Amino acid sequence: MRLRRSTSATADPARPVHPVDRVPPAGRLAVYGMQHVLAFYAGAVVVPILLANAIGLDERQLIHLINADLFTCGIASILQSVGIGRIGVRLPLLQGVTFTAVSPMIAIGLAAGGGTQGLTTIYGAVIVAGLVTFFAAPYFARLLRFFPPVVTGTVITVIGLALLPVAATDAVGGSNAPDPGNPLYLGLALGTLAVIVLIQRLFRGFLATVAVLAGLVLGTLAAVPFGLVDLSAVGESDWVGVTTPFHFGWPQFSIAAILSMIVVMMITAVETTGDVIATGEIVDKKVGSDDVARALRADGAATTLGGVLNSFPYTCFAENVGLVRLTRVSSRWVVAAAGGFMILIGLVPKAGALVAAVPHPVLGGAALAMFATVAVVGIQTLSRVDFRDHRNVVVVGSGLGVALFVTVQPDVAQALPEWAGIVLGSGITAGSVVAIGLNLLFFHTGRRRDIAPATPGGDTVTFDRLASADAGEFSAVLGRLFEGPTAVPARVHARGPFADATALRAAVQDELFAAPPEEQRALMGHYPDLGGLAGAGGSGAPAPRRPDGVGPVGGPVGGPVGGTAAAALRDRAGLALLGNDDRAELCAVAAAYRERFGFPLIVCLRDAGDTRTLLATARRRLEHPPAQEHATALVEIAKVAGRRFDDLVSG
User: Concatenated DSSP letters for 309-363?
Assistant: First the structure.
């Protein structure tokens, strides 16, 4: 089926700009960007430090690796967030060197003799693996149907939980701390965490969004009297340090090294997919296979560039995914600004040394907050999973269990063959592999079970299962997208088969808008005023209940012809707790609207903004002519149906 591409995004200059694409004022852009750099810096430099120590590089070579790493991180982050053609996902995702590659790179370097000889062999493998990732990106993205919420939620949760020990290590002074039990370290870490929490509790707006940056600055200042802030490296560093291609010599190509690095990049692709989906959840932007392909192309291009510019494999950095969730600053241009800062820091070693002066306990305290929020995003994704199906319980439980087992006992990888250690030596990759494998075993092998009819529980169904359903089951499931009986699902089924979930979603929208006006008007009558925020009829009184007590008349209920209770909660998210004055005003506007137009004031609450914006929009709609409001109400129904489709259909 050929999809029709809408041109409204470019044709309508009044179309609202998504928060991801908004450019903050210059001052805030700089502060937000530097906050990302500070949150990212410790993780950025740890890979070259570990590698240099393991393969026997000297201090001068290590400094060059760090500068090259930061410089390339900046380019990679701009490529991912701003994008060039079909490269880059254009989300607020900052790129960094993947931890998954550390052990394999050390093994490659030592096998090649260590030192710069080992380094050039590593770079040969990195360059080839980056190219393979770039060209394989669209094929990997087609496998997204194998990553339903039960898998992606598990992977995202695993990423957050597996990173917490890294934060804990920093909180006690770092892996090389002479006195990890020092109460001072604990005080600085918990104090930094407390500052971040208090700022978010006491302040709103700009101050709340820079809570992490404020915590890092105040924590560092508090550490000065105790001698934990060492600025000697600033004076010893050069002002300018430019990384040149193949600084350590021409790359050497080893088949075994290349195969090992390709395996690493394939595992990293799973992590990138989880990070992209997590970020899409955070910034409220739908992520599809094309988005994942663009993100993976950026990973591949950045990795190849890293091999040329004396750096390493790149992936989306989960630390900064947590920062986006924590600060709620979703502009991708903030990450682009952070990329610019990293390029500058990579060119000015003194600036890098200044940022590196932030003590480990302070970084650890901030990281505790950021990494935990990544896990929370995973839990939010898992909330869409039907845990009444025991198979989902096994997938999530086994994935989390294996991930935490390897995280707590990393030496377990030594009991495995070397090739298996690459995959299972990291809690993130081990847990991801288990979750993906069990999902394939339970849901994509053997005889496919019949699709279950729609229920009030808000079950998620895969596109494959829905595509194989008969007309009755198909209509029962898609009927949950609407608040009343409609022939739209039956007409959509008659148009099938569909190439993918995107084509199916487009067909639902097409049939809704193509329905006869009287059918559209009848469907409108089943929707509650303002999504149920106002009482039935707009009187301000509580809405009358259905006999089953599930929801208000015309409100979101389960069953083949209505929405689900879970969908109702999501549709009302953010506006469910209204004061009496706000609710009374909303009810008055809804009553006036119903009297003027003869049908409810229908609003997709998940796109409505705050209460003030909702009221302003409702008052403005009161002035529209009836034909315009008929079209507007239909658009709002389409928005609600689209949102519920995204919640309902996976793959």
Answer: TT---EEE-HHHHHHHHHH----HHHHHHHHHHHHHHHH-HHHHHHHTTS-HHHH
Cα–Cα nearest to 143, from 506, 436, 374: 436
Residue percentage of the chain with pLDDT more than 70: 78
How far is C-alpha 296 from the chain's CA centre? 14
Residue 305 pLDDT > 90, yes or no? yes
Tokens, residue 538: 């707009």
Both tokens of 518, joined, read: 């009287």
Q: What is the mean pLDDT of residues 84-92?
A: 89
Peptide bond into 497 cis (omega under 30): yes
What is the DSSP code string of 185-223?
HHHHHHHHHHHHHHHHHH--THHHHTHHHHHHHHHHHHH
Q: What is the average per-residue pLDDT within 429-443?
A: 85
CA atoms of 21 and 575, how far apart (whole Å): 24
pLDDT digits (tens, 9 = 90+) for 387-420: 888 888 999 999 999 888 888 887 776 777 766 6
Q: Picking from 271-280, 539-548, 565-574, 614-623, which range would have the lowest pLDDT averaged per residue?
A: 539-548
- Residue 648 near residue 460 (C-beta atoms within 8 A): yes
Query: What whole-number distance in Å separates Cα of residue 540 and Cα of residue 534?
Result: 6
CA dist 259 → 100, 264, 415 (Å): 15, 9, 21
CA distances from 119 to 116, 135, 255, 264 (A): 5, 25, 15, 17
DSSP letter at 499 equals S
Greater confidence (83 vs 5) lies with 83
CB atoms within 10 A of CB 636: 20
Q: CB-based contacts of 456: which residues, under 8 Å, 6+ apart?
A: 550, 557, 558, 559, 564, 565
CA distance 448 to 346: 53
Average the pLDDT over 96-119 and give the result. 78
Identity of the residue numbered 213: L
Place of tokens 């009287």: 518
In this prediction the pTM is 0.54
| Residue found by looking up tokens 């309902």 in the block | 648
When the pLDDT of each residue in the chain is averaged and rounded to a whole number, the result is 77
